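=== How it folds ===
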Amino acid sequence: MQARPVRGAIGAAIAVAAVTIVVNPGPAVASVSPPQSDRFYRPPAHLAGKAPGAILRSRPVQLAAFAALPQNVQAWQVMFRSTSYAGKPTAAVTTLLRPAGVRPKQVISYQVAEDASAPQCAPSYVMRPGADPGEAVNQAEIALVDAAVADGFAVSMPDYEGLDGDFGAAKQPGYIELDGLRAAEHFAPLGIKTGMATPVALWGYSGGSLASGWGARVQPHYAPELNLRGVAVGGFVTDVAQALVKINGGPGAGLIPSALPGILRSTPKLARAVAPYLTAAGKSLLADSGRQCEIANVTKYPFFDVNDYLTIPLSRLLTHHAVKKAVRSLNFGASKLTAPLFVYHAVNDELIPVAGPDAIVPKYCKAGTSVTYTRDELSEHGALAVTGGPAALAWLHARLTSAARTRGCMTTTVPTMALTPAAIAQEPELAAAVLRGLVGLPIGPGLS
């Protein structure tokens, strides 16, 4: 029997951890305060006088898989100055991790697929012991973060939606993740160098790929001093409207009301254009879903149909000039990028159509960006998050640790990017992270 697709998740890791929790639930974990009631998340005044990336405050934290399984990493939360989607000074938070006993020389910014519009869905909260265990999908991504740390890299895991949970905001995710890297380079406990002396990379899957795409897009003019060596994106979201149409009415359709409140909040022109066509029930639903995280929304609104909450069909609404223009502003386009791309996508992706990366990759190549693109014929959206992980991390490892630069473009269609013996040999630490990191055991030489 074929397993049901799991959206934006590390399906195999979830299965391993779920079994572990049943067999060995571990000690009870005290709850932690969500961002709305945690003073750490309250930004200081006079941010305009601070440089982007300037550290505002920090504290050590413990991380956990599924809010209950402690992780053997050194970790801190850091608040720093960044820039909002409106171009204004703002504060943001990232979680910084480093290997114990090893001084990292490179940093990976890992963008979690948050896919929600509420502050308590941010990774800095959901990855802590005692957080709401209902957000298991996002919490499972700690396996990939663990693997990067086990490889000897420092990791920045930013709350790229900002303090309000602005899912889908244009440019802001890129500003925040790049400023998170700036903060990481100046955070003394990590012990790394600044500027071009430290190679950095971006990595994200599904909703995290959309955020990572913005980072790659704005880096050349926003943070040119960063030595961005590579960007790995899987389940690559390149066209928001295309994804909306594909997801609508399906089992994962609850993602739409989960994401829309943040999109409308951060895109006033779109909100004004859509408002006249929302029914009273539609407005009520968005108010409700904007207070919940992804799992709650997907569970509460299965097979959600946008058309039931509009006065005109969605297909017609998307053709309106103001709506079309505003939605297009949410896509980062295909201009030449400073860093090479590694793109991996399921040919039969049931949530994010492969037509998106199929169309944008040639445009990147034509603009002069180096792209390595792998199309997986067997996996679906959730499965590829884990089966494509070894190749993505191996590619990032090569970009970060070698002086050689990737040039040119290559597209390959493969039967599967599964965790075969060859794939595990290529990136053994990821297999160790999946099988051991989630249960709080040492997962490699970089962790103790």
